[in-house]
Amino acid sequence: MLVKQEFSAANAPKMRAADIAYNAIESMIVKLELRPGSPVVEAELVEKTGLGRTPLREALMRMSSNGLIVQMPRRGLVISDIDASEYMNVIATRRVLEGLIAQQAAQLATAEQRKDMLLWADKMLIAAKCHDLGAYMAADQAFDTIVHEACGNPSAVQAVVPLVIQCRRFWYAYQHAGDVEEGARCHMLAAKAIAKGNVELAVKASHGLMDYLVTFASEVMGKK
């Protein structure tokens, strides 16, 4: 099974089993392989991930804290719904955090990190032109990871990551309404600004990306 192969402990020896479990389940939720409102069945997750119940339960506890999974009366754990109106609040909160992260990344990133940001932003552009959403999202995640490492602010990163995850899931749910090429262009503007160490432009580009997400969400809500 693909999920077993991708997230097995053998393939990620430096990660804790609970972290491997978290990444595996998060990926399934974000890509809507586990649908909003569906029950969380431990036995099925054990089969899909090839991991034990103990790390899976630890991962599920973390997901409950960031809103991907909710406890429902008489239903147990279920995958949280996607609320388009609440998504605007997610973006508003993310805007503040992303501006700070972009600012600090522009100030603190190493030469190698700046190079990698541009590399992954370029990969996003290529994937967007090929209409390959899977490759686009993988490049987007890699880009975010580098920027988060570069900013040197684990508190801001810890706060923003659950919001980023919610945004990715929203994308998978409503991808038909989105302009992926425009999203890639916004990321490239941010990458170039951070790579140049231009704090003002980095923050401006970060806000531009959030403006794009607002436009996307508004289109989704207008078509629902």
From TrEMBL:
Residues 15-82 form the HTH gntR-type domain. Keywords: DNA-binding, Transcription, Transcription regulation. It comes from the Bacteria. This is GntR family transcriptional regulator. Transmembrane segments: none annotated. Gene3D superfamilies: GntR ligand-binding domain-like (1.20.120.530), Winged helix-like DNA-binding domain superfamily/Winged helix DNA-binding domain (1.10.10.10). It comes from Undibacterium curvum. Pfam families: FCD, GntR. Signal peptide: none annotated.
